[in-house]
Amino acid sequence: MKALLLSNEYPPYIYGGAGVHVEFLSRELAQLIDVEVRCFGDQDSVDGRLRVRGYPEPEGLTAPEYLKPVYGAMARDVAWAGTATDADVVHCHTWYSHLGGILLRQGYGIPLVVTVHSLEPLRPWKREQLRGGYDVSCWIEQTALRMADAVIAVSAGTRADILQVTHVAPERIHVIHNGIDTSLYRPVVETDALTRYGVDPSRPYVLFVGRITRQKGIVYLARALPSIDPNAQVVLCAGQPDTPEIAAEMEQAVADASRVRDGVIWVQQMLPRGDAIQLYSHASVFCCPSIYEPFGIINLEAMACGTPVVASAVGGIPEVVVDGETGILVPLEQQRESPFAPLDPPKFSADLAAAINRVLADPAEGKRMGSAGRERVERHFAWSAIAQQTVDLYRTLV
What value, to the nearest 5°, has the Cα angle with vertex 208 and ends 203 and 214? Predict the structure, then answer.
């Protein structure tokens, strides 16, 4: 059997959880079957049963800047479909790849599998970035989901979201969680990365890792900084803002916090994986303040490194973080429909700060939660098991 995986992101060009997912899933699938990955970029490699081929950005686009990412993605999707394949199944990740999957399904008559990492109708803030291109991305995603022979939801919460916003037969939706490489993501003793980023290894610190987007809730955490224990540092590994507007909000919130407390460290570039693992390993607490999160692979990364997690109780997060055992879940009263904004933003920020302070105040309890988190990911989220579930699903379709 051979699977063709289509993805915007693939190493070395990764900026989000979906890219991490495809990287590790493809590697584990190649232990079981032949795998080809077609992605955005200039990759060109063969490693055993894994073939990776990148496709460059098309030249000559004269559309407005906000439309180029959408039409550029569609052009690469057509190039994917225009390249001959001998795959038995095509498997798409994120809307950027869905047109390619549709064309390959229809043209070659092979089954189409779509993994839902998030849903465009539940991310209306993307209109700030894409304007009319957002309507195009929604249309592509909804069309692919309706046509797919199987849809993989990365959590039970995501499955419920799919049924809410898309006309997909329930029996075609399968829950297969994200995974984590526990041999790679593990506690480490090295601290040189901390020093490079200006973090004092002798002081406790709170950590955030993620992009500056509405869904990640980073601005609510930034507004909570003045209420977090001043003895702790706060390390915000946050870059790639979606829009100038949210970038300005983030800058203002960090500036406001820095006027009333020290120890706020804002790292605005994407971290090499080894540096991120060091920061996870030595953090006193990791915070995930998302307002929309189908799964939250960053929580798995932190837990695998033995770090307790404070996270909002939304989406698939409660399927990963066990309240009181591997961390603390913060309730969030939010709009029932997208964009899911908190009904009381200052209260949400205050609740985040209170949960973080609770972990900081009891290092022994934090250490116990971190150990429990590590044990949980080892038991439930190994990539080998997730790859086997995925291959089993493929076999039902071929």
Answer: 150
